[in-house]
């Protein structure tokens, strides 16, 4: 079993992926990711003493469709102009070793709700430039309505255009914080 090296880390935004998947028209899934993510991770000697804090630039959404991205940034969805950041602040860690649950408060669109991330420690390495790195994967599912994201359109055949359940996937890479 790999052990997460204790210490303070900074999320490497260029090697981190915060993505989501949501059902569209009841028949397919749309994926998107955020291009600007930053944060810190503190790993305690005891994993339960660890913490994470992440900030996401809501306007940095990229679904591969400029019109959809603009609609998501609008007041219909998360109003990125007046609510430019989303945050996650951990409140606890359960488990140990490679797999654990990271609990915390997620704020989207100005609304805060508790979430639990099923997380996995992917390992630690020293990269080709001599810099230590650690990696994590995590997933959760949220209800977009619980975050005030209620825009939708009724379908002629029944149901709605945008599903309520959103699967969130994270691939996090971090380097030691500079003292």
TrEMBL record:
Q: What SMART domains is this protein classified in?
A: YceI (SM00867)
Extract the InterPro entries matched here: Lipid/polyisoprenoid-bd_YceI (IPR007372), TTHA0802/YceI-like_sf (IPR036761)
What Pfam family is a match for this entry?
A: YceI
Question: Where does the Lipid/polyisoprenoid-binding YceI-like domain start and stop, copy by copy?
Answer: 8-175
What family classification does the UniProt entry report for this protein?
Belongs to the UPF0312 family.
List the protein's name.
Answer: Polyisoprenoid-binding protein
Origin organism is: Georgenia thermotolerans
């Amino acid at each position: 079993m790999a052990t997460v090296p204790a210490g303070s880390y900074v999320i490497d935004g260029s090697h981190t992926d915060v993505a989501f998947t949501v059902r569209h028209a009841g028949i397919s899934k749309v994926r998107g990711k955020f291009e600007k993510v930053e944060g810190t991770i503190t790993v305690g000697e005891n994993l339960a003493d660890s913490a994470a804090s992440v900030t996401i630039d809501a306007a940095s959404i990229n679904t591969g469709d400029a019109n959809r991205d603009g609609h998501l940034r609008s007041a219909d969805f998360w109003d990125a102009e007046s609510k430019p950041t989303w945050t996650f602040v951990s409140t606890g860690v359960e488990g140990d070793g490679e797999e654990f649950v990271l609990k915390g408060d997620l704020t989207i669109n100005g609304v805060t709700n508790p979430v639990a991330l099923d997380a996995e420690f992917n390992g630690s390495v020293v990269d080709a430039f001599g810099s230590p790195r650690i990696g994590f994967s995590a997933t959760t599912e949220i209800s977009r309505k619980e975050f005030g994201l209620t825009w939708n359109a009724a379908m002629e055949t029944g149901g709605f255009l945008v599903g309520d359940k959103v699967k969130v996937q994270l691939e996090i890479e971090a380097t030691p914080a500079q003292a």
